[in-house]
């Protein structure tokens, strides 16, 4: 066993075993590595039991966020704790958490391949098992650009598009992922970008065969019953800690 991991106790820790601030920092780092890396413009929010929100700071790119950088705000957007600024687009998250208290995590970014499909106004087909972890019926598409999400009205329109979806492609913009917990949000964000990337490559090659509908639905339902894909967050968190243990500080 690595001495580092023996000392920090991170060898088998799941998301709930990290502090809430560490969860946000790890989620940002992990998703940056998955292609959610459009500089510093993306944002994550995680609702706490006291109804405050933990959010990543505006000034930092996702691959450099540490637990101590994470900001805390209330549902009006007022800063409660933290030394950085919050994104002007925080209205998107405030609207989400006011209207959907059951969705404790919101992720918005412009990932490399998801944004390609958003710009095309299309939902990518599922061509493999990981892609099928996001059920077709729970992917939404806002097929018009309604403005920057730093505008309150535009933010509300983007949240309208969620309805019963887990993931939404925002036309000419990016993607939104919502979930009841951090593990599920991480899985959905990873699967959505994987789906977008693989579909782009397969359709470039041509003659692709999407996953058969019944099998894709059965796979997604099995994942939903478990709530997540076992140990995905834990294993990816260990990778980030190996690369830079300061993510937890």
Structural write-up:
- The protein has 249 residues and is α+β, with helices and mostly antiparallel strands.
- It has a single domain (3-243), classed as Class II aldolase/adducin N-terminal domain (L-fuculose-1-phosphate Aldolase, 3-Layer(aba) Sandwich), CATH 3.40.225.10.
- Helices cover 39% and strands 13% of the residues.
- The chain contains eight helices and eight strands.
- It has an eight-stranded mixed beta sheet, sandwiched between helices.
- Helix 2 (20-33) runs parallel beside helix 6, helix 2 crosses helix 8 (232-243) and helix 3 crosses helix 5 (152-160).
- The two termini are 22 Å apart.
- Residues 1-10 have low confidence and may be disordered.
DSSP helix fraction: 25-40%
Compute the average pLDDT: 91
User: From the alpha-carbon coordinates, what is the Rg to the nearest angstrom?
Assistant: 17 Å
Kindly name the structural category.
alpha+beta
Largest sheet, order of strands side by side? Answer: 4-3-2-1-5-8-7-6
Question: What is the CA-CA span between the terminal residues?
Answer: 22 Å
- Strand percent estimate: 5-15%
What are the defining features of this structure?
single chain, 249 residues, alpha+beta, L-fuculose-1-phosphate Aldolase, 8 strands, 39% helix, disordered N terminus
Short description:
This protein has 249 residues and is of the alpha+beta class. The chain has helices at 3-8, 20-33, 90-99, 114-120, 152-160, 182-205, 213-226, 232-243; strands at residues 43-47, 53-55, 71-73, 79-81, 105-109, 139-142, 167-170, 174-179. Mean pLDDT is 91; it is low at 1-10.
